[in-house]
Amino acid sequence: MNSLRTMVMAALVLVVTACATPSGNLGGTSWQLVKFQGGDDTTLIPDDKAKYTVTFGSDGRVSARIDCNRGVGTWESAGPNQLQFGPLALTRAMCAPGSLHDRIAKDWPYVRSYVIKDGHLFLSLMADAGIYEFERTQK
């Protein structure tokens, strides 16, 4: 009876750990922004893709460069194609006019899903508010 209880507990630990671990599709990847397509047909293209990057750690941590600022936080994927970011601890430098910083920082908590297609990562905002398109980078 004791060994059965031990096996059940071990199985539960594995299930909980698997559920809490970020999706293997994103962990260990790094991306740079190609464009933002708003739900209102607004298209925003960065002046330099390399100034807008996001790196997903395999441990559920995320790091981001949003123009002249850098940040760290957490991410999780509770199911297929689901994505949610935790709060982003972000530096507060004032970026140059035309920066996408304010838009991205405002949208960050509203990302709810993702799709990887043809080497691009698409992050969708809740309520069809828009989609951020990224391309893979070398870490």
TrEMBL record:
Pfam families: META (PF03724). Residues 1-20 form the signal peptide. Keywords: Signal. Residues 25-134 form the DUF306 domain. Coiled coil: none annotated. This is META domain-containing protein. It comes from Noviherbaspirillum cavernae. The lineage of its organism: Bacteria, Pseudomonadati, Pseudomonadota, Betaproteobacteria, Burkholderiales.
